[in-house]
Amino acid sequence: MIRVCVPEEQRRARLARRGREADAEIQARMDRPDPAPDTRIDLEIVNDGALEDAGRTLADFLRGISPARQSAHIGRAAATPDGGCDA
Q1: What is the DSSP string of 9-56?
Q2: Predicted model pTM
Q3: What does the pLDDT read at residue 84?
Q4: Distance CA 83, CA 85 (A)
Q5: Residue 81 has pLDDT above 60, yes or no
Q6: Which of 31, 25, 36 is nearest to 8 (CA)?
Q7: In angstroms, what is the C-alpha Rg of the chain?
Q8: Contact between 43 and 5 (Cβ < 8 Å)
Q9: What is the pLDDT of residue 15?
Q10: How confident is the model over 49-76, as pLDDT tens digits?
Q11: How far is it between the farthest Cα atoms of the chain?
Q12: 68 to each of 40, 65, 73, how far by Cα in Å?
């Protein structure tokens, strides 16, 4: 399982910048619970920088997967109880 998260305020700002949702709709998205709170995360990418950096992290992880390592715990950033990230 790969989780991609972004700090809450940055996520809110990105959604507002897109201009596709009203404030109430943005808030509803922000309030959504983690869809899989008990799922083990093999890699968590904190998407708070350049898209290229997140893509490189994902590509490096995928290149490192072999059949023997697919179930190995590779790494995880701290997640908040509501499914956001603590970065």
Answers
A1: HHHHHHHHHHT-S-HHHHHHHHTPPPS-TTSPPSEEEE--S-HHHHHH
A2: 0.65
A3: 59
A4: 7
A5: no
A6: 31
A7: 15
A8: no
A9: 96
A10: 999 999 999 999 999 986 545 444 444 4
A11: 46
A12: 17, 8, 12
